[in-house]
Amino acid sequence: MNVPLEVSSFSFIKLMIDTLLKLPAERDGFSFFGNVIKRVEISGIVVGIRNKPSINTFIVDDGTGLVECVSFNNDTPSSFPEIQRDSFIRVWGLIREWRGKRNLMVVHYELINDPDYEALSILEIVHATNSVYAPGLFSNQSDR
Questions:
Q1: How distant, in Å, are the alpha carbons of 6, 25, 93, 96 from that of 29?
Q2: pLDDT at residue 111 tops 70
Q3: Three-class SS state of 122
Q4: What whole-number distance in Å separates Cα of residue 9 and Cα of residue 70?
Q5: Across the strands, what pairs with 92?
Q6: DSSP code for 85
Q7: Highest mean pLDDT (candidates 2-6, 22-26, 114-118, 123-127)
Q8: CB-side neighbour CA atoms (13 Å) of 102
Q9: Cβ atoms 48, 58 nearer than 8 A
Q10: How does DSSP classify residue 18?
Q11: Closest C-alpha among 43, 20, 42 to residue 31
Q12: Which residues contact 54 (CB under 8 A, 6 or more apart)?
């Protein structure tokens, strides 16, 4: 079953990083349950930060994988002044591939201080997958 166009084309799809890294590339984006998506939301712990004159990056680890989050500088020394290593972060971004490596072009981010957010985020991903993205994917296996 396909996701309605308004969900897959214009929304940020909440994913685990391993899923993000495994999405098959399509001409106009990345395939997710039969739909082409470009925008995702991830969350995890910042495990690395790199600031260069023209580009700033930070690496996020959610326990399933690592993804580099990228922002190009606009005459500022750092696009992420408050982000520190070991910060828990939520990132909205556009999926990109550069030099054969998948990354996120940062649209927005939010530092998270709620200790329950990580568990809530995982439950939201499972719920959205089962009820919106791929209804019935996690249905009771004994019904088959």
A1: 15, 6, 13, 8
A2: yes
A3: helix
A4: 21
A5: 41, 108
A6: T
A7: 22-26
A8: 20
A9: yes
A10: H
A11: 20
A12: 72, 73
